[in-house]
Fold:
Amino acid sequence: MTDSSVPSVVRRRRKLPQIQKLAQLAALRSQMWVLSRTSPDKAATRLADLFTTPSRPTVRHWEHRAMTQAHYARRRFGNLGFLSVYRWRPDNVAPKGKVLLMHGFGGRVSQLSGFAEALVAAGYEVVGFDAPAHGMSPNNRAALPDFVDALEMFATQEGPFHTVIGHSMGGAALATALRLGMGAQRAVLIAPPVYPGTYLAQAGRMLGATEKVTGRAQALIESQYGRAFDEFRTPLNASVLTQNALILHDRSDRQVPLAEGQLVAAAWQDAKLEVTEGLGHTRILRDPSTVALVQKFLMETV
Structure:
């Protein structure tokens, strides 16, 4: 069906959320521009809050099938509270190993559920959780240190893992957790970002914040978590890792440029880089060719 054959009232309904989002962004930019120049501390607090408040996009129809096959539980993760945990197991056979899925900022485990389906069919047990303020897990705010803390707690209960698979910021969190001692034989990082400060600066520019305000926002976040952004430089963490790794990145990724995945792959001693075409930042997670690359990587003998 072409767009011209869609009733005009439906087209208007589709356009309305986009118009509302643009209006909200314009209002935020106006507010941030004024605060940056009249009250930099308030502007920094506002920017820090926005940067650590993930959106919760609607679960797409293609995510439901694999998720209905998962065993769901709520489990306490220390001071992070109760998080949603998912598990897929092969039927009537001992698993070859355990694979961990880690979504990115503003994401959820269900985005990686296509990997679960394929890997269970290959004989692996697959586990994952929605990070705080993501998916079905509670809370409203989260940042990269929360991802790392949750991974470390989960690994204590469930690890070591045969393979860990992380998308976007989830990949950066996995590289940090592996550097801190999380056990895994292999790692797959999909569109891994290099440094969180890059994206805070990007958000600041988009919202009209001054560089001084962005710097203060970073200092606020670092103070709140007691951890510097430099601890999460993915190439630096990757440079001390010895696991076999597969780095997947799409050439047309507009959220995390391919150059960042290339830097991570170059820093990781035993990493292989695979560049996909035309899949962007999230379609890469459900494309059959991507799933096949990951499945092949897991089945390879070291």
Summary: Strands lie at 71-76, 82-88, 98-102, 125-129, 161-167, 184-190, 244-250, 271-276. The CA atoms of residues 1 and 60 lie 20 Å apart. The first helix runs from residue 8 to 38.
